[in-house]
Write a structure and sequence with these properties.
CATH architecture of the largest domain: Up-down Bundle
CATH superfamily of the largest domain: MFS general substrate transporter like domains
Oligomer: single chain
Shape: globular
CATH topology of the largest domain: Growth Hormone, Chain: A
Helix content: over 70%
Length: 509
């Protein structure tokens, strides 16, 4: 029996051991966020070294989150059944080993495959961290603080990732960014069996492989359709993939409603606070990842900053994210969650609008301010939404609820690059005018990605190479401005969702 399920009356308060366990649970959280941020900063070097196509570059970013998101619910259910700590240790071991392989990938295809396997093991890690936190901290006030620290861990990892990654990329090849996993996960493997108490659902339902398959086929084809639409335009393949995803999603929901013990209890979404918190979680992460996707490339490939310099320009925004995630804990006792979340997401919208209105020629300082505003909104929204999500279910279903929360996080990360990134790619390709005299093969490489254009320009004589580079940066910045405008619109939608769906979430809950 878990601690949470054995509590009667007033919940027991956590002691030193439980807070030490939280520190251990933060290690994989830090790793995931470091991995995402570091990869964003390494994209220019990866695009130069491996010469991926535009679609492959998006897959390098997205395949990890895509596989992870597709399996989170299944792994959360497995953790409920076989033990959350056990699954955490298996996932951490596999993640560390595959990271070593990713570091030495010889081509884009191998790197995509390695990132997919990392997503498989990452899916074991993430639901376990939040569900173990739920069973460790029974007292609501302590749990809310623990969740704030947990959510801030993503921001802390994001803040640490660019600095560490920038230093690594200054002195070593891009593959070094994947080696960060080893020193982070080794302490987890040593300390988790000592400090973490195993927890599981005392009465788990049967494992459902068909539901797992449907959850994957509901998500992967839709993201693939978005990418193909951006790189090749509309076609029967895009339509077919989209239809496959929608039909699979419908079959998944239908199956869950008919099963006595579903893989994912979709009835939870009838609770507007739960459903609204999931949407808020997703849109907040979409805004963060989307902003990072175009800003990191702009700072390095257009402005000309080195990786470490570009990383340091975003650290203030990441610091704001950490502070915002922690400071809302005492505020939410007096102010309703929907007001806090709406104000936060409105701040993120202003951050996008700052770049949209100022244009790509804006000084670097404006990008710093814009990202700080995005960080403020994401930090506040993540703490509140995760708290509302896991508070809505009984402790025995903590793994499933945690998986839903993590799925929203990863789907947001996927959509951040799949939607905003694909939009940026489409505008870049459509706006790029190849100067006369550029060989056809070189021009095609430049049209794939901005990184490819930088590399291609280096192979040409100075005047022609400069013309190609100028044309590429102009096309990229046109896409950047349009994408920032769409991002601002998405945040307006998120504010509306928060105001309507979180009306029943009280300040004291």
């Amino acid at each position: 029996m878990t601690r949470a399920s054995s509590t009667v009356g007033t919940p027991s308060r956590a002691g030193t051991r439980q807070w030490a366990a939280l520190v251990v649970l933060m290690l994989p959280v830090l790793l995931v966020s470091i991995d995402n941020t570091v990869l964003s900063f390494a994209l220019p070097e990866i695009s130069t070294a491996l010469r991926p196509s535009a679609a492959n570059q998006l897959w390098i970013v997205d395949v990890y989150s895509l596989v992870l998101a597709g399996l989170l619910v299944a792994m959360g259910s497995l953790g409920d059944r076989f033990g959350r700590r056990r699954l955490l240790l298996i996932g951490a071991s596999g993640f560390a080993l595959v990271s070593l392989g990713a570091a030495f990938a010889p081509d884009a295809g191998t790197l995509i495959a390695a990132r997919a396997v990392l997503g498989f093991f990452g899916a074991m890690i993430m639901p376990a961290t939040l569900s173990l936190l739920r069973s460790t901290f029974v007292d609501r006030d302590q749990r809310r603080l623990a969740i704030a620290i947990w959510a801030s861990g993503f921001a802390a990892g994001s803040a640490l990732g660019p600095i560490v990654g920038g230093i690594l990329l200054e002195h070593f090849a891009w593959g070094s960014i994947f080696l960060i996993a080893v020193p982070v996960l080794v302490p987890l493997l040593v300390l988790a069996p000592i400090l973490l108490v195993e927890s599981r659902d005392p009465d788990p339902g049967p494992f459902d492989p068909l539901s797992v398959l449907l959850s994957l086929t509901a998500m992967a084809p839709v993201v693939a359709a978005i990418k193909l639409l951006a790189t090749h335009g509309p076609g029967l393949d895009v339509l077919g993939l989209a239809v496959l995803g929608v039909v699979s999603g419908w079959l998944f929901v239908r199956r869950q409603l008919r099963r006595e013990r579903p893989l994912l209890d979709v009835r939870l979404f009838s609770n507007p606070v739960f459903a609204g918190s999931i949407v808020v979680n997703l849109l907040a992460i979409l805004s963060l990842v989307g902003f990072l996707f175009f800003t990191t490339q702009h700072l390095q490939l257009v402005v000309g900053l080195r990786p470490l310099q570009a990383a340091l320009t975003l650290v203030p925004g990441l610091a704001v994210m950490i502070v915002a995630g922690l400071i809302v804990v005492p505020i939410v006792r007096r102010v309703t969650p929907r007001v806090i979340v709406a104000v936060g997401l409105g701040s993120a919208g202003v951050g996008y609008a700052t770049v949209w209105l100022a244009g790509a020629e804006a000084p670097v300082a404006l990008f710093v301010v814009g990202f700080a505003l995005v960080g403020l909104g994401v930090g506040a929204a993540e703490t509140i939404s995760n708290d509302q999500i896991i508070a809505a279910v009984p402790p025995a279903r903590a793994g499933a609820a945690s998986a839903v929360s993590e799925t929203a996080y990863e789907v947001g990360a996927v959509l951040g690059t799949a939607v905003l990134g694909s939009m940026l790619t489409a505008i870049y390709r459509g706006s790029l005018v190849i100067p006369a005299g550029v060989p056809a093969e070189t021009g095609e490489a430049a049209r794939e990605t901005l990184g490819g254009a930088v590399s291609a320009a280096g192979t040409l004589e100075a005047p022609l190479g400069r013309q190609l580079l100028d044309a590429a940066t102009h096309a990229f910045d046109a896409g950047l401005v349009a994408t920032a405008g769409v991002g601002a619109g998405v945040m307006v939608l998120a504010v509306v969702v928060a105001l309507f769906s979180l009306r029943r979430a009280s300040a004291g809950d």
